Amino acid sequence: MGILDLFKRKPEVLEALDLSWLQADMHSHLIPGIDDGSKSMEESLALVRRLADYGLKKLITTPHIMSEYYRNNPEIIGMGLEDLRKAVKKEGIDIEIDAAAEYYMDEIFLEKVKKGEKLLTFGEQHILVETGFINRPQMLLEIFFHLEMAGYKPVFAHPERYQYLHADKALLQDLLDRNIILQINLLSLTGFYSKQVKDFAELLLEKGNVQFLGTDCHNERYLDMLELLPKSKGYDRIREKDWLNSRL
């Protein structure tokens, strides 16, 4: 092959992203202006339109509820959801939209659970929960216990991103033994966060406790990178599994 032949090579044609097999996305930040996700209704509509174009039929958006930063509650999220639904309907985008929340697991959240405060769920009493990325919360297992005792089915958001879980094999095994439901970010499989996160996501998929997949969409950049998913090693494999997303 001569040097001129290099310039004649056709650019790689990327397979179009198709998420119709997933049917529903249960992790995103699409209500404008209430967390670190969409900043405006215009941006939200652009994101919703793209997600619908990928073949998704339902979006369950999950704003952060974090006592120190995002002091959302069911009322704030409910009002934002109604505004988003009206805007989506006006634009003629054919997709169902609902809302839950992504709860940060800390002392304040534990007190809410113990007091029986209203918490936002999806599906069959599933509740999406997260932690910080670096340090393990001391009350992690205690919160999971109290959620289950209260009748909830906790879903651990993007565990592949928690550095403390990478390093603590005993804790990971404890979570697996307790059958805690795990949710992987599709972006993790593209290497968007890091190769380490990608490798850990693939490991968790092999363990069998991952029952939900989510986009964790915050902005256009997330979806730009998500369109690289068809190139990922596990794309064909994840399309073959029966995810709980399809029952939402």
Topology:
Layout: H1 3-8, E1 24-25, H2 41-53, E2 58-61, E3 64-65, H3 74-91, E4 96-99, E5 102-104, H4 107-115, E6 126-130, H5 140-149, E7 153-157, H6 163-167, H7 169-177, E8 181-185, H8 195-207, E9 210-214, H9 220-226, H10 235-240
Parallel strand pairs: 1-2, 2-4, 3-5, 5-6, 6-7, 7-8, 8-9
Helix pairs in contact: 2-3
How would you describe what is shown here?
The protein has 248 residues and is α/β, with parallel strands linked by helices. It has one domain: Metal-dependent hydrolases (TIM Barrel, Alpha-Beta Barrel). Helix content is 39%, strand content 14%. The protein contains ten helices and nine strands. The protein has helices spanning 3-8, 41-53, 74-91, 107-115, 140-149, 163-167, 169-177, 195-207, 220-226, 235-240; strands at 24-25, 58-61, 64-65, 96-99, 102-104, 126-130, 153-157, 181-185, 210-214. It has a six-stranded parallel β-sheet with strand order 3-5-6-7-8-9. It has a three-stranded parallel β-sheet with strand order 1-2-4, covered by helices on one side. The N and C termini lie far apart (53 Å). Keywords: Hydrolase. It is an enzyme of class 3 (hydrolase). This is protein-tyrosine-phosphatase. GO terms for molecular function: manganese ion binding; protein tyrosine phosphatase activity. It comes from Algoriphagus hitonicola.
